[in-house]
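FORM 7B: Structural annotation worksheet

SECTION A. Query
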Amino acid sequence: MGRLWRNTTMSDDHLSELYQEIILGHNRRPRNKGELNPFDGKGEGYNPTCGDEVTVFVRRTAGGNPIECVHFTGEGCAISQASASIMTSAMSGKGDEEIRAEIRRVVGMLTAADDPESVELDEWGDLAALVGVRKFPARIKCATLAWHALEEALGGS
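SECTION B. Predicted structure
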């Protein structure tokens, strides 16, 4: 069993620092940022509350499924950009249904539909860093923006 985000070997302060560093690292050095050309699907997201915007591009393999790669463009806060970066790294090479399931899982985690005690670092990887966003309900839209755009890029739900 992997480490839980609330475990006895790491203090909440240490985990918060770790998560903040992961988010800031993805914001400073985003993965897969840039327009993808050619692309097979495109989804856009805009948060009028804070001005975050993201466009997600997907390219399919020659057989159509799985997704060969996912890229994004956009501007916004560190959370929205880091979430998009983490997402593109995690979704490339997966099939549509697997991606849709992951979108539901991540959005569920961010909207507190899942118990935070179930967010394991070993299982979630860098995605676990986003769990801290739940402390700030206004920022949840920032973290989920790219995920909704990815769903649109796949052709909706």
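SECTION C. Observations
Residues 109 and 131 are 7 Å apart (CA to CA). The first strand starts at residue 41 and ends at 47.

SECTION D. Sign-off
Analyst initials: ____
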